Amino acid sequence: MALIHQATIHPTKLELLAEWLPSRSWYTAPAGEPTRVAAYRFDDPAGAVGIETLLVRVGDGPVHQVPLTYRDAPLDGADEWLLRTTEHSVLGKRWVYDAVGDPVYAAALAGAVLGNTGQAELMVEVEGRLVRRDVDMTIVSSAPRGAEVPAVGAIENVVQGDPTLIVTNTVELAVVRRLGADAVPTDAVLTGAVLTGTWPGQETPVPLASATLR
Protein backbone atom coordinates (compact mmCIF):
# COMPACT_ATOMS: atom_id res chain seq x y z
CA MET A 1 0.00 0.00 0.00
CA ALA A 2 1.19 3.52 -0.84
CA LEU A 3 -0.12 6.29 1.41
CA ILE A 4 -0.65 9.49 -0.58
CA HIS A 5 -0.49 12.59 1.62
CA GLN A 6 -2.56 15.67 0.93
CA ALA A 7 0.43 17.97 1.02
CA THR A 8 2.35 20.70 -0.73
CA ILE A 9 5.84 20.05 -2.08
CA HIS A 10 8.44 22.70 -2.88
CA PRO A 11 9.79 22.53 -5.45
CA THR A 12 7.19 20.28 -7.05
CA LYS A 13 8.11 17.03 -8.76
CA LEU A 14 7.43 18.53 -12.18
CA GLU A 15 9.61 21.56 -11.38
CA LEU A 16 12.41 19.18 -10.41
CA LEU A 17 12.03 17.30 -13.68
CA ALA A 18 12.03 20.52 -15.70
CA GLU A 19 15.54 21.19 -14.35
CA TRP A 20 16.84 17.64 -14.53
CA LEU A 21 15.46 16.02 -17.68
CA PRO A 22 17.33 18.17 -20.25
CA SER A 23 20.61 16.91 -18.76
CA ARG A 24 19.77 13.27 -19.55
CA SER A 25 21.24 11.70 -22.69
CA TRP A 26 18.00 9.78 -23.36
CA TYR A 27 15.74 12.85 -23.13
CA THR A 28 14.59 13.98 -26.58
CA ALA A 29 11.96 16.66 -25.94
CA PRO A 30 12.38 20.44 -25.69
CA ALA A 31 13.26 22.03 -22.38
CA GLY A 32 10.27 23.13 -20.32
CA GLU A 33 8.09 22.06 -17.43
CA PRO A 34 6.58 18.67 -18.23
CA THR A 35 2.99 17.64 -17.71
CA ARG A 36 2.04 14.46 -15.88
CA VAL A 37 0.57 11.79 -18.17
CA ALA A 38 0.20 8.93 -15.65
CA ALA A 39 2.08 7.24 -12.80
CA TYR A 40 2.42 3.99 -10.90
CA ARG A 41 3.95 3.12 -7.55
CA PHE A 42 5.64 0.16 -5.92
CA ASP A 43 5.69 -0.80 -2.23
CA ASP A 44 8.86 -0.73 -0.18
CA PRO A 45 8.45 -3.73 2.18
CA ALA A 46 10.25 -1.75 4.88
CA GLY A 47 7.90 1.19 4.43
CA ALA A 48 10.79 3.67 4.38
CA VAL A 49 11.21 4.64 0.72
CA GLY A 50 8.61 6.08 -1.61
CA ILE A 51 8.83 4.55 -5.09
CA GLU A 52 6.98 6.31 -7.90
CA THR A 53 7.34 6.13 -11.66
CA LEU A 54 6.10 9.21 -13.50
CA LEU A 55 5.14 9.31 -17.17
CA VAL A 56 5.60 12.88 -18.39
CA ARG A 57 5.78 14.87 -21.59
CA VAL A 58 6.65 18.42 -22.63
CA GLY A 59 4.21 19.88 -25.15
CA ASP A 60 3.64 17.45 -28.00
CA GLY A 61 6.92 15.64 -27.34
CA PRO A 62 7.29 11.95 -26.53
CA VAL A 63 6.18 10.41 -23.25
CA HIS A 64 9.18 9.75 -21.02
CA GLN A 65 9.26 7.29 -18.14
CA VAL A 66 10.97 8.59 -14.99
CA PRO A 67 11.18 6.35 -11.90
CA LEU A 68 11.94 8.25 -8.69
CA THR A 69 12.55 7.31 -5.06
CA TYR A 70 11.81 9.56 -2.10
CA ARG A 71 13.84 9.22 1.11
CA ASP A 72 13.94 10.98 4.48
CA ALA A 73 17.75 10.86 4.58
CA PRO A 74 20.54 10.69 1.99
CA LEU A 75 21.29 7.33 0.38
CA ASP A 76 24.93 6.49 1.06
CA GLY A 77 27.14 6.61 -2.02
CA ALA A 78 24.34 7.80 -4.31
CA ASP A 79 25.13 11.48 -4.84
CA GLU A 80 25.23 11.03 -8.62
CA TRP A 81 21.59 9.89 -8.58
CA LEU A 82 20.25 12.76 -6.48
CA LEU A 83 18.00 15.22 -8.33
CA ARG A 84 17.80 17.52 -5.29
CA THR A 85 15.88 17.84 -2.03
CA THR A 86 12.32 19.02 -1.58
CA GLU A 87 10.26 20.26 1.36
CA HIS A 88 7.13 18.19 1.96
CA SER A 89 4.51 19.87 4.15
CA VAL A 90 3.75 16.59 5.96
CA LEU A 91 6.96 14.55 5.78
CA GLY A 92 9.53 17.34 5.91
CA LYS A 93 12.75 17.31 3.93
CA ARG A 94 12.88 14.61 1.24
CA TRP A 95 15.79 13.45 -0.91
CA VAL A 96 14.61 12.71 -4.46
CA TYR A 97 16.65 10.19 -6.45
CA ASP A 98 16.75 8.88 -10.00
CA ALA A 99 15.50 5.45 -8.99
CA VAL A 100 17.74 3.50 -11.36
CA GLY A 101 20.54 4.06 -8.85
CA ASP A 102 18.49 3.02 -5.80
CA PRO A 103 18.62 -0.66 -4.75
CA VAL A 104 15.14 -0.46 -3.18
CA TYR A 105 13.71 0.42 -6.60
CA ALA A 106 15.72 -2.35 -8.28
CA ALA A 107 14.26 -4.93 -5.89
CA ALA A 108 10.72 -3.61 -6.34
CA LEU A 109 11.01 -3.56 -10.13
CA ALA A 110 12.39 -7.09 -10.15
CA GLY A 111 9.38 -8.22 -8.14
CA ALA A 112 6.94 -6.48 -10.47
CA VAL A 113 8.53 -7.93 -13.62
CA LEU A 114 9.64 -11.40 -12.54
CA GLY A 115 6.86 -12.02 -10.00
CA ASN A 116 4.07 -10.07 -11.73
CA THR A 117 3.19 -8.44 -8.40
CA GLY A 118 1.58 -5.39 -9.98
CA GLN A 119 1.57 -1.90 -8.54
CA ALA A 120 0.92 -0.58 -5.06
CA GLU A 121 -2.60 0.07 -3.86
CA LEU A 122 -3.09 3.83 -3.40
CA MET A 123 -4.64 5.19 -0.21
CA VAL A 124 -5.23 8.79 0.81
CA GLU A 125 -6.11 10.04 4.30
CA VAL A 126 -9.35 12.04 4.31
CA GLU A 127 -10.70 13.39 7.61
CA GLY A 128 -8.83 10.80 9.62
CA ARG A 129 -9.71 7.75 7.54
CA LEU A 130 -8.00 6.01 4.65
CA VAL A 131 -9.78 6.14 1.32
CA ARG A 132 -8.76 4.10 -1.71
CA ARG A 133 -7.69 6.16 -4.72
CA ASP A 134 -7.99 4.81 -8.24
CA VAL A 135 -4.75 4.17 -10.10
CA ASP A 136 -4.46 6.00 -13.40
CA MET A 137 -2.68 3.33 -15.41
CA THR A 138 -2.38 -0.45 -15.60
CA ILE A 139 0.80 -2.50 -15.53
CA VAL A 140 1.18 -6.24 -16.15
CA SER A 141 4.10 -8.62 -16.63
CA SER A 142 4.55 -11.49 -19.03
CA ALA A 143 5.82 -13.60 -16.10
CA PRO A 144 3.49 -15.91 -14.16
CA ARG A 145 1.88 -14.23 -11.16
CA GLY A 146 3.59 -15.26 -7.95
CA ALA A 147 6.71 -16.63 -9.63
CA GLU A 148 9.75 -16.83 -7.38
CA VAL A 149 11.94 -13.72 -7.42
CA PRO A 150 15.54 -13.86 -6.20
CA ALA A 151 16.73 -11.46 -3.54
CA VAL A 152 18.22 -8.34 -5.09
CA GLY A 153 21.20 -6.82 -3.33
CA ALA A 154 23.51 -3.99 -4.28
CA ILE A 155 23.50 -2.40 -7.72
CA GLU A 156 26.72 -3.32 -9.48
CA ASN A 157 26.40 -1.08 -12.54
CA VAL A 158 24.00 1.28 -14.31
CA VAL A 159 24.31 1.89 -18.04
CA GLN A 160 22.54 5.09 -19.03
CA GLY A 161 20.64 5.13 -22.29
CA ASP A 162 17.29 4.05 -23.64
CA PRO A 163 16.69 1.59 -22.21
CA THR A 164 18.65 2.23 -19.01
CA LEU A 165 20.25 -0.99 -17.76
CA ILE A 166 20.48 -1.81 -14.05
CA VAL A 167 22.83 -4.67 -13.19
CA THR A 168 22.50 -6.28 -9.75
CA ASN A 169 24.02 -9.39 -8.23
CA THR A 170 21.06 -11.57 -9.29
CA VAL A 171 19.02 -9.70 -11.92
CA GLU A 172 19.59 -7.43 -14.91
CA LEU A 173 16.82 -4.88 -15.45
CA ALA A 174 16.07 -2.63 -18.42
CA VAL A 175 13.95 0.53 -18.05
CA VAL A 176 12.51 2.01 -21.25
CA ARG A 177 12.69 5.81 -21.26
CA ARG A 178 10.65 6.84 -24.35
CA LEU A 179 7.31 5.07 -24.51
CA GLY A 180 4.81 4.14 -27.19
CA ALA A 181 5.28 5.19 -30.79
CA ASP A 182 8.30 7.30 -29.80
CA ALA A 183 10.17 4.46 -28.10
CA VAL A 184 13.42 3.10 -29.42
CA PRO A 185 13.13 -0.35 -31.04
CA THR A 186 12.87 -2.73 -28.10
CA ASP A 187 12.77 -6.20 -29.62
CA ALA A 188 16.57 -6.46 -29.54
CA VAL A 189 17.09 -5.08 -26.02
CA LEU A 190 14.15 -6.24 -23.88
CA THR A 191 14.68 -9.90 -23.05
CA GLY A 192 13.27 -12.17 -20.38
CA ALA A 193 10.04 -11.15 -18.67
CA VAL A 194 8.58 -7.84 -19.90
CA LEU A 195 6.45 -5.33 -17.98
CA THR A 196 3.92 -3.45 -20.11
CA GLY A 197 1.56 -0.58 -19.36
CA THR A 198 -1.56 1.15 -20.61
CA TRP A 199 -3.10 4.48 -19.66
CA PRO A 200 -5.85 6.77 -20.96
CA GLY A 201 -5.00 7.59 -24.58
CA GLN A 202 -2.63 4.60 -24.79
CA GLU A 203 -4.85 1.53 -24.86
CA THR A 204 -2.33 -0.72 -26.63
CA PRO A 205 0.17 -2.10 -24.09
CA VAL A 206 3.67 -0.66 -24.45
CA PRO A 207 6.88 -2.05 -22.93
CA LEU A 208 8.00 -0.34 -19.71
CA ALA A 209 10.79 -2.60 -18.44
CA SER A 210 12.23 -6.10 -18.56
CA ALA A 211 14.15 -8.40 -16.25
CA THR A 212 16.43 -11.39 -16.73
CA LEU A 213 18.18 -13.60 -14.19
CA ARG A 214 21.95 -13.52 -14.09
UniProtKB/TrEMBL annotation:
<dbReference type="GO" id="GO:0005524">
    <property type="term" value="F:ATP binding"/>
</dbReference>
<feature type="domain" description="Maltokinase N-terminal cap">
    <location>
        <begin position="20"/>
        <end position="102"/>
    </location>
</feature>
<keyword id="KW-0547">Nucleotide-binding</keyword>
<dbReference type="Pfam" id="PF18085">
    <property type="entry name" value="Mak_N_cap"/>
</dbReference>
<dbReference type="InterPro" id="IPR040999">
    <property type="entry name" value="Mak_N_cap"/>
</dbReference>
<dbReference type="GO" id="GO:0016301">
    <property type="term" value="F:kinase activity"/>
</dbReference>
<keyword id="KW-0808">Transferase</keyword>
<protein>
    <recommendedName>
        <fullName>Maltokinase N-terminal cap domain-containing protein</fullName>
    </recommendedName>
</protein>
<keyword id="KW-0418">Kinase</keyword>
<keyword id="KW-0067">ATP-binding</keyword>
